[in-house]
């Protein structure tokens, strides 16, 4: 495992870093999972997949690597430092860094799946829908905002002090073009890669309607999308026991393995 590897720099020379887990052995270059953390675009750690996985041994990232993937968990600029699309640009830079070093690392960067939770799921979805050189192979999106243009309680697009407003540095309703650009729902196209969307039915922070509507839009466009709604689950899988969270993780890992042909 390589920790704190600089993959880019931002204004002022501050490095952006990623952690990289490589499979112990591989007969061919390993496909890649690029992970984006949650935290409302305002906080969070690159190596955190959510409160329910923090005490896992092995860690979720070690488990993904043990399944034959390379896993890159990347920092991105938070909304207190830079407005959208800086966060997406940073993840694109991480993809480029991985691609340039693919032979050295023994990875197949052209077979990359984006995986994220909450705000990181939003970025993973956007990356999968908009990155074209090369296109991503798929996306695993946990309980993420998909639409920054429409009121979905508790989100109000007229309010500048929401996490979404802070991300855009403006109330989404006052910056409709940027809100659409930051909304996976409005970036859907027929050539989108396969998506797995997983969302708690009792999510009080990000309405499950985000994932339902994104899945419906992908299917309408002719793109493959699998939607799993989880009864009894609030945001961050609160309300679920350990077994329920482990089942969601296993299903997500199976989707990644099928999509990336492991």
TrEMBL record:
Keywords: Hydrolase. Gene3D superfamilies: alpha/beta hydrolase. InterPro entries: AB_hydrolase_fold (IPR029058), BD-FAE-like_dom (IPR049492), GDXG_lipolytic_enzyme (IPR050300). One of its GO terms (molecular function) is hydrolase activity. Residues 18-218 form the BD-FAE-like domain. The keyword Hydrolase applies. It comes from the Bacteria. Pfam families: BD-FAE (PF20434). The keyword Hydrolase applies. This is Alpha/beta hydrolase. It comes from Streptomyces coryli.
